């Protein structure tokens, strides 16, 4: 499930706020971060940090200040990550990858974290920062150094990130988290409107990733009698209608696909385990034994017992 962390200077004495914030910035961004407040201002900040499938999202609101960051050399050796910065409110002057740029609300830029960076602002600002593996990002959009994306191009990405951050934390399995991170990468690619780097393998489409996600979910939960469009939607954080649309793209329905997978697994178990037919039906999620018999006969043309007998020489016990 996504890991959510919240930090705030609210309630701290003024003398403790800056040391606390510098420590939080260093821990969350894994950079050596130094924040210098504007003269004559009372510093304050609020930070929300959440992760999905190897991609992290940080929303940070900060009083006027200058932020200087430098990646730790040990972290750089361990893994190379890029920081995509979306200016959500206020204006910032930035030095990223050797490029000076001013970000207005809605604009997006990328720091590849190969050089120190500086962010300066004279008003309270709010930014959304995405941290993603550099090679994964470059495979989608090429080298984004020095590019600033306009608000109109980044509108879909901005809207999705705001929605994600506004939601209460939900429990997702690994497949759903990876699907969410895939959606975000797709929206980044739309915002930058760049083709993948030459020589990289084509990425599966969003629809293909969701099809893979729901298929994997079904296979992991076949033994649950409640498995259906509603349960899949609840666990994956989408609507039942969306689940139905995903299955429609596969020329089937959730219920038809689930029954087919249950019967395929039941057929294997009848032959490989020689367990009682009722036990096999229960293991694959059939709460009603008569329903299992009817469905099995419709699918294979014979009863479960006869199916096993023809392949093993004798039928398994009925009860």
Main beta-sheet annotation: 6 strands, antiparallel
The total number of structural domains is: 2
Mean pLDDT: 82
CATH architecture of the largest domain: Sandwich
Can you tell me the overall shape?
elongated
Helix/strand structural class: alpha+beta
What is the CATH topology assignment of the largest domain? Jelly Rolls
Radius of gyration: 26 Å
Strand arrangement across the biggest beta sheet: 1-3-4-11-6-9
Descriptive account of the structure:
- With 319 residues, the chain is α+β, with helices and mostly antiparallel strands.
- It folds into two domains: 4-203, Jelly Rolls; 206-319, Homeodomain-like (Arc Repressor Mutant, subunit A), CATH 1.10.10.60.
- It is 45% helix and 23% strand.
- The chain is built from twelve helices and eleven strands.
- The chain has helices at 14-29, 73-78, 134-141, 151-166, 174-192, 206-220, 229-236, 240-249, 254-272, 277-283, 289-300, 304-312; strands at residues 4-8, 31-37, 45-52, 55-62, 65-71, 81-89, 92-96, 99-103, 108-111, 117-121, 125-133.
- The strands form two sheets. Strands 1-3-4-11-6-9 form a six-stranded antiparallel β-sheet, sandwiched between helices.
- Helix 4 packs antiparallel against helix 5, helix 5 packs antiparallel against helix 6 and helix 6 (206-220) crosses helix 8 (240-249).
- The longest helix is centred in the middle third of the chain and has 19 residues, at 174-192.
- The radius of gyration is 26 Å and the shape is elongated.
- The model is unreliable at 73-78 and 195-199 (pLDDT under 50).
């Amino acid at each position: 499930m996504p890991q959510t962390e919240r930090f705030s200077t609210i309630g701290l004495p003024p003398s403790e706020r800056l040391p606390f914030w510098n420590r939080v910035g260093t821990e969350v961004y894994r950079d050596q971060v130094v924040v210098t407040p504007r003269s004559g201002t009372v510093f304050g900040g609020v930070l929300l940090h959440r992760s999905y499938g190897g991609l992290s999202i940080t929303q940070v609101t900060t009083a006027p200040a200058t932020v200087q960051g430098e990646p730790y050399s040990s972290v750089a050796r361990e893994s190379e990550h890029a920081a995509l910065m979306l200016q959500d409110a206020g204006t910032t002057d930035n030095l990223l990858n050797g490029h000076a740029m001013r970000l207005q609300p809605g604009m997006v830029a990328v720091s590849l974290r190969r050089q120190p960076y500086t962010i300066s602002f004279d008003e309270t600002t709010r930014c959304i920062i995405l941290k993603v593996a550099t090679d994964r990002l470059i495979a989608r959009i090429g080298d984004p150094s020095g590019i600033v994306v306009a608000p109109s191009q980044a509108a879909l990405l901005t809207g999705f990130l705001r929605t994600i951050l506004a939601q209460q934390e939900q429990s997702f399995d690994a497949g759903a988290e990876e699907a969410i991170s895939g959606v975000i990468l797709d929206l980044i690619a739309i915002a930058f409107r760049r083709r993948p780097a030459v020589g990289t393998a084509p990425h599966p489409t969003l629809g293909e990733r969701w099809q893979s996600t729901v298929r994997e979910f079904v296979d992991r939960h076949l033994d649950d009698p409640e498995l259906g469009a509603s349960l899949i939607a609840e666990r994956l954080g989408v609507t039942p209608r969306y689940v139905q649309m995903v299955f429609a793209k596969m020329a089937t329905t959730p219920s038809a696909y689930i029954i087919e997978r249950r019967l395929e697994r039941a057929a294997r178990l009848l032959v490989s385990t020689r367990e009682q037919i009722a036990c096999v039906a229960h293991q694959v999620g059939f709460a009603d034994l008569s329903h299992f018999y009817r469905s099995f006969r419709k699918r294979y043309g014979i009863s479960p017992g006869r199916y096993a007998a023809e392949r093993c020489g004798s039928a398994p016990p009925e009860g």
